Amino acid sequence: MTAPSFPITEIVASRRPHRKDAARNYDALLAAAREAFAEHGSEASLEDIARRAGVGIGTLYRNFPTRRHLFESVYADDVNTLVQVAQELADQEPWQALTAWLDRFAGYMVTKRAVREALNDESEIFAACRESMYAAGGPLLERAQEAGQARRDMDFVDLLRMVAGITATAFDDDAQRDRVLSIALDGVRVSH
């Protein structure tokens, strides 16, 4: 049985440099950008991102010729990670797999807000991300529903909107956000 193919996985692979040193700089820039976007939103300084990554601004521009290219690459890389996590969780007990993936999704939503400010819903990257996320995460909900562990009167879009709504709220800390998410997921779970 071959592993499913996701559009975003192919896009991420095509953008990542093949030389080890270039790939290392690329990965460091993505991590630094993700951190800076989470802290400062879409207006994060490119110079600050390069400094955090331990590279020069020229290296940033070689990898990401425009600010938009950097936003798209961070967004695509985050969604690709969610796709990989869904695949890793596929063999776990259905409810555990679903909630573990939703926990990662909630963390991703923090960075996504800043990146989405710079992207529009019609971009190729956005469409590939949406398609890949639904194809990877949707089956986790379906498995939990088939196992009688999750409500059947909701679909994957409903679930993502609920989690996105929760993560859009300001919390005192991550523990409070996790607690509120857990309370909401209790409403999704079928009690026996």
UniProtKB/TrEMBL annotation:
Which keywords does this chain's UniProt record carry? DNA-binding, Transcription, Transcription regulation
Q: Does the keyword Transcription apply?
A: yes
Q: Which residues bind DNA?
A: 45-64
SUPFAM superfamilies under this entry?
Homeodomain-like, Tetracyclin repressor-like, C-terminal domain
| Pfam families in the cross-refs | TetR_C_43 (PF21597), TetR_N (PF00440)
Taking every annotated instance into account, which residue ranges of this chain make up the domain HTH tetR-type? Answer: 23-82
The record's annotation in PANTHER family points to: HTH-TYPE TRANSCRIPTIONAL REGULATOR BETI, HTH-TYPE TRANSCRIPTIONAL REGULATOR RUTR
- Protein name (Swiss-Prot/TrEMBL): TetR family transcriptional regulator
UniProt organism field: Streptomyces doebereineriae
